[in-house]
Write a structure and sequence with these properties.
This protein has helices at about 15-20, 60-70, 165-170, 185-195, 200-205, 255-265, 265-275, 330-335, 355-370, 455-460, 465-480, 485-495, 500-510, 535-540, 560-570, 615-625, 625-635, 650-655, 680-685, 690-695; strands at about 80-90, 110-120, 135-140, 145-150, 220, 225-230, 235-245, 285-290, 320-325, 350, 545-550, 575-580, 585, 590-595, 595-600, 610, 640-645, 670, 675-680. By secondary structure, the protein is of the alpha+beta class. It binds CIS-heme D hydroxychlorin gamma-spirolactone 17R, 18S.
Length: about 700
């Protein structure tokens, strides 16, 4: 066997690799950075008790100097994130399409690190803003790191990377005063997109509930661009990557988002952290849409245009593997902040296309990381380090952590025995897919990129009634914040090219005229997979990990609480008893009930459902408490499951849920549009529990008359 064909040794697991650099403090002593032990870190060294600090206090100087340099530049986009480790495993070999090693063997799992993020906000901004979410995955494969740096929308705002700085400048806070933070609801964003029809399709996604994920665990991911898989015969296949969460794709509503942003700005981060901490590991299925090379020109859009999807009805998404996130980072900065994703981190079997957005990204990520992570050696940071061996002649630079013995750091060399040697293309070397490229040197986009309205219309046509209402409301909110009337009008005119009904509804809300002239023709095409209301593609119908608030006061039926707790826990939901105060409550039968949280420290927007057990004194106390009534009203308004047992329904009656039928005398259980009421005997018999869990699992019930509810 020649040295070129030496087998690649099995790499360590990523966690094994990280273990030696995990710096545990237990049982250690405080030292300087060079290991000298320190006996006092509270008093600087002074000339006399009231005298000046001395230059020779090396501990003081080192401590302050390090502190002075603790901050690094935040990412110019995607500054705020949350990360987790996990594993990916393919369902079956994909050898027919790709030689990528991590997609060959269903018995072998590949470690991953995933970072979810918002895009526009600064590092300290709120999670529940209206924004695209980043979904970036680093696969630590045996052949090197592969990064799938995606978003939770399948399309992007611009077609060519050269427009990216303009887009980002438009959406970021405005230059004179750095206002507003993490919002697109301001003049410069709408000025830009209204002048830029290629953005319209992605803006439709942004105005939809897709921009308000309930959880990073309930959010899809997309590679966005068309990439290329390459098999061992060098044959290429176009591919679009999809992540589908096993818990289904679910969103918040806008009013809720704004409230959560104040109540718990870390809502999505906390949710991810807590779920992993409690062993509810988020899972996502990787899917691919495969297009044979010869079909490149089969579509009425260009595969290289990142403002377009391939509708799933035309090319189905084929599930190819599953990812589980099962470990929180130990240190946010070291791992989630210092992780460096790059679209050009590829492995043999995965290649690029000429998508001009992707081509630009392949330049941008390394460039930005050189400054953000302080020089060219950031791949040596523990979270970035591949598990595959790395060897080359790159040397020195800031933060060099490796010692390279030997005389030669160049190729070719004879003094170092010719090492590191070049790999054989047949033995795991990356070989770029061969493609003939010729053409004139021009700054021009292909005509095949010219249709900016067709898929925006497809998206609109595919929405259910409530999704359309939410989109119209979002446009009205956002444009209602725009001061310049011309920008408002121009946006409405653009909407007229998508759908005249949409344009008219938005126009009315923001006080500008609807577009004039003959309405653009709506092509009438739909893609059912795009709707969040579509059970087949986007729902999971599980109550697992859903958070349920049980409202209680002194005199509550302890039996109801116990039965609810047991049944919901069996369904995997998380139940918390909220009382008027922390501590304990007395139950109707003379027992004691622990309160998980005082009602005033929480709010309905931090739960997926609100339940009211029976118990005359408890219900009377809650009915007299504006805060308790607000929990019920607000949950109802946001389309959530609201439930009550026995006289608990009196609290619902007191609030007044318009048009909803509640259980009365003689009714066992009544389930009306997510409001579940019934007799205490039904909960004991389990009859109440099935509709309750269904109502929670359905996520939201927007077929209610909730507008008149003040909450
Ligand atoms: Fe990014 N993007 N991007 N982007 N992007 C960055 O890289 C850029 C685009 C995405 O959690 C930056 O290290 C350009 C599309 C994610 O660390 C930067 C263009 C998609 C993340 C950058 C795009 C993404 C980034 C900022 C237009 C979805 C966060 C800091 C061509 C497919 C990764 C950094 C993480 C981060 C550039 C467009 C996803 C500046 C030039 C399209 C998920 O390099």
């Amino acid at each position: 066997m020649s040295a070129h064909e030496a087998p690649v040794p099995d790499p360590p697991d990523k966690q094994e690799q990280l273990d030696p650099v995990r710096d545990h403090a237990e049982g250690t002593h405080l030292t300087t950075n060079t290991g000298t032990r320190i006996d006092d870190t509270d008093n600087s060294l002074r000339a006399g008790e009231r005298g000046p600090t001395l230059m020779e206090d090396f501990h003081f100087r080192e401590k302050i100097t390090h502190f002075d340099h603790e901050r690094i530049p935040e990412r110019v986009v995607h500054a705020r994130g949350a990360g987790a480790y996990g594993h990916f495993r393919p369902y079956a070999s994909l050898a027919e399409f790709t030689k990528a090693d991590f997609l060959q063997d269903p018995e072998r799992s590949t470690p991953v690190f995933v970072r979810f993020s918002t895009v526009a906000g600064s590092r300290g901004s709120a999670d529940t803003v209206r924004d695209v979410r980043g979904f970036a995955t680093k696969f630590y494969t045996r052949e090197g790191n592969y990064d799938l740096v995606g978003n939770n929308f399948p399309v992007f705002f611009v077609q060519d990377a050269i427009k990216f700085p303009d887009f980002v400048h438009a959406v970021k806070p405005e230059p004179p005063n750095e206002i507003p933070q993490a919002q697109s609801a301001h003049d410069t964003f709408w000025d830009f997109v209204s002048l830029q029809p290629e953005s319209l399709h992605t803006v439709m996604w942004l105005m939809s509930d897709r921009a308000l994920p309930r959880s990073y665990r309930m959010m899809q991911g997309f590679g966005v661009h068309t990439f290329r898989l390459v098999n061992e015969h060098g044959q290429g296949t176009f591919v679009k990557f999809h992540w589908k969460p096993l818990l289904g794709t679910h969103s918040l509503v806008w009013d809720e988002c704004q409230k959560v942003a104040g109540r718990d700005p870390d809502y999505n981060r906390r949710d991810l952290w807590d779920a992993i901490d409690q062993g509810d590991f988020p899972e996502y299925e990787l899917g691919v849409q495969l297009v044979p090379q010869e079909d490149e020109f089969r579509f009425d859009f260009d595969l290289l245009d990142a403002t377009k999807i391939i509708p799933e009805e035309i090319v189905p998404v084929r599930p190819v593997g599953r990812m589980v996130l099962d470990r929180n980072p130990d240190n946010y900065f070291a791992e989630t902040e210092q992780v460096a994703f790059h679209t050009a981190h590829v492995v043999p079997g995965i290649d690029f296309t000429n998508d001009p957005l992707l081509q630009g990204r392949n330049f941008s990520y390394l460039d930005t990381q050189l400054i953000r992570l302080g020089g060219p050696n950031f791949q040596q940071l523990p979270v970035n380090r591949p598990v595959a061996e790395t060897r080359n002649n790159q040397r020195d630079g800031y933060g060099q952590h490796r010692i390279h013995p030997g005389q030669s750091s160049y190729a070719p060399n004879s003094l170092g025995g010719g090492c590191p040697m070049l790999a054989d293309p047949d033995a795991g070397a990356y070989v770029h897919h061969q493609e003939r490229v010729d053409g004139a040197r021009i700054r021009r986009r292909s005509d095949s990129f010219a249709d900016h309205y067709g898929q925006a219309t497809l998206f609109w046509n595919s929405m259910s009634g409530w999704e359309r209402e939410h989109i119209v409301a979002a446009y009205r909110f956002e444009l209602g914040k725009v001061v310049d009337r011309t920008v408002r009008r121009r946006t409405v005119e653009q909407l007229g090219h998508i759908d005249i009904g949409l344009a008219a509804a938005v126009a009315e809300g923001i006080g500008v005229p609807a577009p004039e002239g003959p309405p653009a023709e709506n092509h009438g095409r739909r893609s059912a997979a795009l709707s969040l209301a579509n059970r087949a593609t986007n729902r999971a119908d599980s109550a697992a990990t859903r958070r349920v608030a049980v409202l209680a006061a002194d005199g509550v039926s302890g039996g109801h609480v116990t039965a609810l707790r047991r049944a919901l826990a069996e369904a995997g939901a998380i139940v918390e008893v909220l009382g008027p105060h922390d501590g304990e409550l007395g139950t109707a039968d003379g027992g004691r009930l622990g309160v998980d949280r005082a009602m005033n420290t929480m709010t309905s927007v931090l739960y997926d459902a609100v339940c009211v057990p029976g118990g005359a004194a408890s219900v009377a106390a809650l009915a007299g408490d504006g805060l308790a009534r607000h929990y019920v009203a607000e949950a109802f308004k946001h389309g959530k499951c609201v439930a009550a047992l026995d006289d608990g329904a009196d609290l619902l009656r007191r609030v007044g849920l318009p048009g909803v039928r509640l259980a009365g005398p003689g009714d066992e259980v009544v389930h009306d549009r997510g409001v579940v009421t019934g007799a205490g005997t039904a909960v004991a018999a389990g009859d109440f529990v099935t509709p309750l869990i269904e109502a929670i699992a359905a996520h939201r019930h927007f077929d209610r008359d909730a507008d008149q509810i003040a909450a």
